[in-house]
TrEMBL record:
It is found in: Cytoplasm. Keywords: Cytoplasm, Methyltransferase, rRNA processing, S-adenosyl-L-methionine, Transferase. GO terms for cellular component: cytoplasm. It is an enzyme of class 2 (transferase). InterPro entries: Alpha/beta_knot_MTases, PUA-like_sf, RsmE, RsmE_MTase_dom, RsmE_PUA-like, tRNA_m1G_MTases_N. Its EC number is 2.1.1.193. This is Ribosomal RNA small subunit methyltransferase E. Belongs to the RNA methyltransferase RsmE family. GO terms for molecular function: rRNA (uridine-N3-)-methyltransferase activity.
């Protein structure tokens, strides 16, 4: 059964404009069809389509699951965009499938990319959410300067910065996860890693330096390794 984004009320659901067009014009759906609808906030409804118009597709809620497959943790990954967008898009797709709650893009000293197309990224995340039948749509934040990001108030978060500087103290991520943090933020740097000044600045703002293992990863691989580790360690 296909999944669509829309508004879910007590007994009815309405697909958003783009999803309505896809259902009616691309899939050529009909009244009486059964579909899944999510609001991206944890609600997942089984819906029987009752009305198809040019502006909206509406239906009757047959079954509603609240907080569908809600995780017991909140994961926020802040990542420096890769030079090749295909690699970044691969991370976005797979991280969404595994389970991630929020993504921020960082502009760092060694960043290879200074701009991103946020609308395209949101579509990739939405598509991955639908393909993996998830009811929570990850929040996507636009490109943010590193020094501005670390100054934000991440109340209740265990804050981590993954880096490769062997002479600067690092804690294995698995050790951090042993404390069962409910909310965790992990920063992943560009191919040239975070600068030493950035690492020290992050530590001054209560970020813990972490390692992801003995191997040296590319940016998107390191980010996926972190997502896998958190999912395995906290689920």
């Amino acid at each position: 059964m296909k999944l669509f984004f829309g508004e879910i009320h007590h007994e009815t659901a309405i697909l958003n404009e783009e999803e309505s067009h896809h259902f009616a014009k691309v899939l050529r759906g009909n009244e009486g069809d059964l579909v899944h609808v999510t609001d991206g906030k944890g609600n997942l409804a089984e819906v029987e389509i009752t009305s198809i118009s040019k502006k909206a597709v509406e239906g009757k809620v047959v079954d509603l699951k609240v907080n569908f497959e809600q995780k017991n943790y909140y994961l926020h990954v802040a990542i420096a965009p890769t030079k090749t967008m295909e690699r970044l898009e691969f991370f976005l797709e797979k991280a969404t499938e595994i389970g991630i709650d929020e993504i921020t893009f960082l502009q760092t000293f060694h960043s290879e990319r200074k701009n991103i197309k946020i609308e395209r990224i949101e579509k990739i995340v939405q598509s991955a959410t639908k393909q993996s039948l998830k009811a929570y749509l990850p929040k996507v934040n636009d490109l943010t300067k590193f020094n501005e990001f670390i100054k934000q108030d991440f109340e209740g978060f265990t804050k981590c910065i993954a880096h490769c500087e062997a002479d600067i103290e690092r804690t294995p991520l698995r050790t951090v996860l042993e404390n069962n943090p409910q909310k965790i933020l992990i920063m992943i740097g560009p191919e040239g890693d975070f600068s030493r000044d950035e690492i020290f600045a992050a530590e001054d703002h209560n970020f813990t330096g972490i390692s992801l293992g003995h191997q040296r990863f590319r940016t998107e691989t390191a980010a996926l390794q972190a997502v896998f580790a958190v999912d395995w360690g906290l689920k």
